Amino acid sequence: MPETKSPKPVTPRKTTAALKAAKPPGSNAKSVAKPAAVPAEGPPTAVEPAYAPAICYVHPLQLGRLDRWDGVLDRIAALGFDHVLMAPPFAVGAAGNVFVTRDHAQLHAALGGGPADAAIATLAEGCRSRGLTLLLDLVIDRVAIDAPLRSDHPDWFISHAEDGDALDPRLPPSHLEVASFRHDDPRTADAILTWWTQQLRNWVGLGIGGFRCEAPARLPAERWRTLIAGVRKETAAVRFLAWTPGMDGAAIDALAGAGFDATFSSLRWWDFRAGWMVEEHARLAAVAPPIATVEAPFGTRYGQAFGDATIRERAYRRLLHVADTLDAGWLMPLGFERGALLPMLAERGDPSDQQWIDAHAAFDLSDAVRDVNATIRAARETNTVAPHAELRMLTGPDAPATALLRADGPDLRAGDAATLTVINPDLHMGVSVHADHFLPGVAGGFTRGVALDLLTEPVGSCDDTLRANARPLAEIDLLPGDVQVWRVFRNAPVRAPAAPKPAKSPRAKAGEAKDPVNAAIASPRIGIEQVQPSVENGRFAVKRLVGDDIVVEADVLMDGHDKLAVHLLWRAQDEDAWQHVPMVALGNDRWRGAFRPERLGRHVYAVAAWRDAFGTYRSELEKKHTAGVDVTLELEEGARLVAQAAEHAPENAAADALHKLAQLLSEPDQAHRLKLLLDPVTALVMAQASHYRPFYVESVAYPLDVERAGAAFASWYELFPRSASDDEQRHGTFDDVIRRLGAIRGMGFDVLYFPPIHPIGRTNRKGRNNSLHAEPDDPGSPYAIGAAEGGHDAIHPQLGTLEDFRRLMRAAREKGLELALDFAIQCSPDHPWLREHPGWFAWRPDGSIKYAENPPKKYEDIVNVDFYADDAKPGLWTALRDVVMFWADEGVRLFRVDNPHTKPLPFWEWMIGEVRARYPDTVFLSEAFTRPKVMYRLAKVGFSQSYTYFTWRHTKQEFIDYLTELTRTPVREYFRPHFFVNTPDINPVFLQTSGRPGFLIRAALAATLSGLWGVYNGFELCEGAAVPGKEEYLDSEKYQLRAWDHNRPGNIVKEIALLNRIRRANPALHSHLGVTFQPASGDRILFFSKSTPPVLPARLETAPAELAELANALSPDRFGDNTVFVAINLDPHHAHESDIELPLWQWGLPDHGALMAENLVNGQRTVWRGKWQHIRLEPEQPFAIWRVRPALPSEENPS
């Protein structure tokens, strides 16, 4: 840890929203953020600004009479707030608790007493005149036991004091003074809700702009939905805010769709390290945008945890700055800005409280509060609020600093700019971190940025101006408790020709080829061998993601004992200049280096080596000096080497240092000359500057495909749009799919995949259950593509139009879903191509067309194209490419390819290259259930992902063997497995016979073993009805419309949502790599660990002291920043127990060491002591997932 630095002057912080709002008149700067989708034609429509309130919370008893609040309201408005939220101001019960109202019609005596309505109306008008909206706390589940409402409607209530609970010692005394509404009693619930609807309408009519709904779980979600809709019938603008801190996950999930405008985060309780904050953010955003909560009303004051006033102010500023970056609104109790320690008490309060807080303020953060409110206001005014923004954690819990990446919308994939927040969790010590130490690859290619809080006036910048100034993220210095905010950008993708010309071989000099001795003399003296990673020695590209560390090793050797210099070279394919970094010797002539590509697209890398003249000289000098040999002549030789290097140094070398060194070496002091020549710094300067590279040799260039994160990590959901109507008698439409988007995203899926959406042929149309006879209303198989309405570039008319499809894409993106389409190279006999290009198809000797077959299966409704027919070359090839280009032009970047193993491999290599030359972010998924080597060849020629044999792996050893093959052999360099648990074609026998536990088992296996997993609609409903004796679905959607009951009892929707939340929050699960199967007794429990790669040292090209660290940086015996353990019971019928061994040594812990294990399924935290633990898994809950790290001393030995 570096020493604590002196604090910098506090300056107003700026965000992108604030910058855009403050553009000077006449500024031409424009945002470069991409639109969510292709805009619809027609006149622009007004967009309602997102709701992002700046809320100041007040306890009315601490402010006194309502008619004397003018000064307080002025103060709140001056701080920049636009909402005032107050606790209930009504007459209370005997205990005096403001949250237990006796009479909603009467004002609290301390607030002036009398009729409440008139006082509230006056207060609301006072707020409105100051630009403030008045909000009210809503306590909807209880009143005081002596409330007149209870006397009028005794059947509406239950009283603990009068119904047998009076003697229960577990209940506090105040609990006995409460009468609870019977919201769950069908005899009274409607009447209660009607009363509340009228009451809320009345308050809205008085000027109340919204309600903080306290304890929302106490009213069922459907009742909230009815209440909110009823109130909004008269005033649509009224807001409902769900108070969610402290609620468990299931209760939060239940609020989805209830109609809330906002939720509240648990920011106040975050330690600025743990990953639960991001998990909660995603969960809340699925219900309604989260509002940052810096302090809970009536909770423990934030400052109570910090004794020293200086530390306390530092903690408060950190909390404010983090709230500032969320841009979805925030809530601050009045007095927080002055570090109030005096608690809010529901039972009492006095105007002197606020006076005491002001008089005893240890600091005043009013300016910082105004900055936060200005940021929110500017974001609203420029419509840049992102209420459902995706949030990702880039660091593990043990990292010295915490990094959060915040998208501009619900999907980080959709934008080319984001906001990076880096936080120092330590309030006492400063820290320096390098951006390379954030979890590799997680940032999704955002590798360059500008520090927003370092910008100075005049403020006229926005994203394109910032982008021009963006630089690679490097060292970030953080003061104690400091927060830095960066605007970060993706680099432009590599633009390369689809078919680059092969490099020309260097010409041999005349006579060399014929003269063996000259040929031998010209041969490389240095050998470069066994370069890894590589695929078939560079014939095909290695696959990686933007931001991944590319670790390259090679054998480099030369005769004799001279020293070698070895460099790793790399560049994007559209660049001419090589970048380079020195490689480090591992021993036995093996060398290692690493680089990190920042752009999407094709790159190349190579290894270069030469005899290190100065290194060889220095080694000999050191040996002679150690042996006591006179080195006078050697010192003169060294001085000349340095002088020569200074004279001929390259432009980018440290010439000044070389000239100064040469001057020092010209002095006669022999001891000083010896010290300089043996100094490691001299070796570094000479290595960077030397133009003399004898016996220089370069390896061939090895290709590298750098892809986006979605190529390796995604959760797919497949459905047939035509079955989306939930009515077997009505063909579904894209509008029906739009209505399903929220539920699909709610399960945590981020890709929505459709089987073919094109017109379906009528000739030989298949009927239900693959019948050869179709009824008039049978829709046919969507894989029989083509009819009079069009072919592969047309949309089935019953689904909608192309404009409807565009609208669906926009709606999906707004939900954080990316659409994937099926590319199936097959045609119905009615496809327009048969009429226009009959020479593209296969014909039988009798002149009839050849139908598709996969013996014993026959597809009479499908005909085959012939890629090598005379008329098909090249017309068919280019037509098929143009089909993909058509949909890519519409914004589709994900294509699932049907049966690619039955089409020519050269076609795929050419076609994928053509598409990626225009759209480098395109991802192709291979649906090739075929021989392993064919599957692997398809990956080599360009497919980013592939279906696998996962469906037919069941035993513990089968999983271990298969994942070992995928992760520990050369296959890992280019093949990414996509674990689909089922498909429309495959209804696995296991799922047919295992019941609900079997579906949970397969979901857990797929979601945790691979970064890519998918389900076909019905899996979440545990649908397993099969055609007898076959792995096929009965009443398959391939041949008929289906109506699904998405609330079918026994479904696993919540479990799937849980798995996807765990996946997103833990980068260790973002890839199939990093898995290690750990010892576990028995053959029915699969136990494995997954961890992110250890972080490489930063700036390898300029930090020779760190090169040795690189040599061991990627040892498989080291865990990274994020590590999870997974245990799965493979038996759907019986419980099983196992003794599991924890790899404590991978953290450097002894066998009796301790780990903190956070169970991500049930939320429990446990300290595991010792390397052996015992677990038991039931069929009803067949999996457990723990996030694990070494236990802190305070956790290992709690006081």
From TrEMBL:
User: Top-level EC class, please?
Assistant: transferase
Q: Which residues form the signal peptide?
A: none
Which transformation does this protein catalyse, written as a reaction?
alpha-maltose 1-phosphate + [(1->4)-alpha-D-glucosyl](n) = [(1->4)-alpha-D-glucosyl](n+2) + phosphate
> Which Enzyme Commission number(s) are listed?
2.4.99.16
Enzyme active site: 898 (nucleophile), 927 (proton donor)
InterPro entries (UniProt xref):
GH (IPR017853), GH13_cat_dom (IPR006047), GlgE (IPR026585), GLGE_C (IPR049171), GlgE_dom_N/S (IPR021828), Glyco_hydro_b (IPR013780), Ig-like_fold (IPR013783)
Q: Where does alpha-maltose 1-phosphate bind?
A: 766, 826, 861, 899, 1038-1039
Q: Which Gene3D superfamilies match?
A: Glycosidases, Golgi alpha-mannosidase II, Immunoglobulins, Phosphotransferase system, lactose/cellobiose-type IIA subunit
- UniProt lists compositionally biased (Low complexity) regions at 12-40
GO: which molecular function terms?
glycosyltransferase activity
| Record key words, sorted | Carbohydrate metabolism, Glycosyltransferase, Transferase
**Annotated region described as Disordered, given as residue ranges:** 1-44, 496-515
Positions of the Glycosyl hydrolase family 13 catalytic domain: 718-1063
Q: Where in the chain is the site Transition state stabilizer?
A: 985
- Family in the record: Belongs to the glycosyl hydrolase 13 family. GlgE subfamily.
Quaternary structure annotation from Swiss-Prot or TrEMBL: Homodimer.
Q: What does this protein do?
A: Maltosyltransferase that uses maltose 1-phosphate (M1P) as the sugar donor to elongate linear or branched alpha-(1->4)-glucans. Is involved in a branched alpha-glucan biosynthetic pathway from trehalose, together with TreS, Mak and GlgB.
This protein is called what?
Answer: Alpha-1,4-glucan:maltose-1-phosphate maltosyltransferase
Q: Which organism is it from?
A: Ralstonia pickettii
